[in-house]
């Protein structure tokens, strides 16, 4: 049903066909969006015009161009009917409904109309230019403010959903931000921590880990150069004697760890056989090599004839080889020369690889270091590098006869003992450099002629060895103290006087 003459406003149920909303504005009703912001700013402008009229002033004239294009109508100072030729609507002047959009006239509520104090100004005012100027000043997201209108807009509103006058919509308050879950108070149900929002962990929820002091780093290498040079004679499986001799020289500590900083230490070969723990000796030398390098020094070793014998026994066993005395095998020769079954049982691939990579000859501080007191090194090259390369290549070919030939040559001894010994030493020094040769292999008691065979346990026949033996006109130093004869395992610092 529609509103008839003399009837009050009828409240209707909103439907899809209700495009328009009567121009009634209820207090407390608040429109949102850009349309509401525009009309509220327009209401402010009309309030200012009404206040100016009430004080006897004249309303500012609308620009002439707008007045020429539309018929102006005077705005009544107080509530009443709108005169013919009133403000211009969207389809034409108010009071003349256009065919496409029927006009809707709203009676101004007397309770909201201001009371004039002076006569109404005759100046005509056009509504459309005023509206356009208001729209130009409205920001896209201006804050919405609730306000009691003084003068209702005389133009058509945009279609909005009608509100029931009995239950006006309460002003929408800005929604407060949800409290941070990490702040005071309890977190909401279903809360899941995120990267930026982590829960607080109490001390009792964590695992307490004991922080231990880091060990002191090893001493830095001497910037002025390497440390002193030491050499070790034949060990032959006597691990306890080796540890005692190294500790006596301050090269290892009480726990058997490297303690010599940037000292240089050379082993002259023959780590296994005859003694009880040849594999233990190899493990110790390998470990000291790593520890000495970390401390700025080094621990290195030469290949002896017993290393060749142990590798051959492991690789070839009872395979026959050509020997100068007939057919032989590495297994038989290894057992004959003091091979220990416990060493063979504990021998692993990394032990074999380490032994096969050892050099046969080296030079340090004018000392030519070799294992055997023989000139057989000259058969394998005219330089230190050539000799070592030739022997390494021969070992990689895995030929039992070639292995046996190497073992047989490095088993020779006493080349420097006789009257021609000094000349033999000079031959090696001329070829490979150095001023003295240092060797193992031949026990000092043998070189001195004190015994003809290894010690048989008789205390009366025990050799007395005090230190290295210097001979061959002072050109050769023997380092095998005869530990297998109840002699002494020698560890000495070079150079030696004499």
TrEMBL record:
InterPro entries assigned: Calcineurin-like_PHP, Metallo-depent_PP-like, Ser/Thr-sp_prot-phosphatase
Segments forming domain Calcineurin-like phosphoesterase: 228-444
Disordered: annotated segments: 1-202
Biased segments, Polar residues type: 106-123, 144-154
Comp. bias (Low complexity): 50-81, 159-179
Pfam families listed in its UniProt record: Metallophos (PF00149)
Name of the protein in its database record: Calcineurin-like phosphoesterase domain-containing protein
Biased segments, Gly residues type: 82-94
